[in-house]
Amino acid sequence: MPVKKLTRPKLTLMEKLYLPAVFKGLAITLKHAINSMRGKTPGAENFNGSGTGVTMQYPETRWDDHLPEYYRGTPALVTDEQGRERCVSCQLCEFICPPKAIAITPGEIESDDPWAKVEKRPQEFDIDMTRCIYCGMCEEVCPEQAIFLRKDYLVIGLDRKEMVHDKEKLYEIGGVREGLVNKWNELK
């Protein structure tokens, strides 16, 4: 295999001093400061800011109206229209989660239950929000569309224990989602 040896380009004296880059940065900063003082900062009106910049005045003003369609926020579990769990405890989301934020303990559905054909549902389902990176892989891999990422970005807690969302909390923030659920399909 041929090896190509690269040589580092020679820098001029001005490039070695970094002075052009420093002055260019100062000019950009000065330009933004002057525009801010004149109230002509782009986007200031949309963020309902103070008029001196594009800084959003949180919590009075929030990102809710400015979030793009592709925004991925807090993961949540959903039920169907009849309040049944969509999750079948296949654990695909747990296995594919890059930071290993999801922990599932599968549980069996009793044989006298009318939906015993499904066999499993989560006994415990925890998502550690301090580890979640909002990548959306859990949503992508779920065969029952039981987990999805909401547009919420406010995930708060006073300690690490509060940042672990258990099954009840995940269903509470997830709510109901309508549509075909494979596990409840009679023909399947």
Automatic annotation (TrEMBL):
Its membrane topology, per UniProt?
A: Peripheral membrane protein
UniProt remark on cofactor binding: Binds 2 [4Fe-4S] clusters per subunit.
Q: Where found in the cell?
A: Cell membrane
The job of this chain, per UniProt, is described as:
NDH-1 shuttles electrons from NADH, via FMN and iron-sulfur (Fe-S) centers, to quinones in the respiratory chain. The immediate electron acceptor for the enzyme in this species is believed to be ubiquinone. Couples the redox reaction to proton translocation (for every two electrons transferred, four hydrogen ions are translocated across the cytoplasmic membrane), and thus conserves the redox energy in a proton gradient.
SUPFAM superfamilies in UniProt: 4Fe-4S ferredoxins
Protein name as catalogued: NADH-quinone oxidoreductase subunit I
Q: Which HAMAP family match?
A: NDH1_NuoI (MF_01351)
Under catalytic activity, the entry for this protein gives: a quinone + NADH + 5 H(+)(in) = a quinol + NAD(+) + 4 H(+)(out)
Ubl conjugation listed as a keyword: no
Gene giving rise to this polypeptide: nuoI
In which broad location class does this protein mainly occur, judging by the first location in its UniProt entry?
membrane
- Keywords of the record: 4Fe-4S, Cell membrane, Iron, Iron-sulfur, Membrane, Metal-binding, NAD, Quinone, Repeat, Translocase, Ubiquinone
EC number(s) stated in the UniProt entry for this protein: 7.1.1.-
Q: Which GO terms describe its molecular function?
A: 4 iron, 4 sulfur cluster binding; iron ion binding; NADH dehydrogenase (quinone) (non-electrogenic) activity; quinone binding
The UniProt entry, under PROSITE patterns, shows: 4FE4S_FER_1, 4FE4S_FER_2
Quaternary organization: NDH-1 is composed of 14 different subunits. Subunits NuoA, H, J, K, L, M, N constitute the membrane sector of the complex.
Q: Name one GO cellular component term.
A: plasma membrane
Cofactor(s) named in the record:
[4Fe-4S] cluster
PANTHER family, per database record: NADH DEHYDROGENASE UBIQUINONE IRON-SULFUR PROTEIN 8, MITOCHONDRIAL
Give, as one word, the top-level EC class. Answer: translocase
InterPro entries per record: 4Fe4S_Fe-S-bd, 4Fe4S_Fe_S_CS, NADH_quinone_OxRdtase_chainI
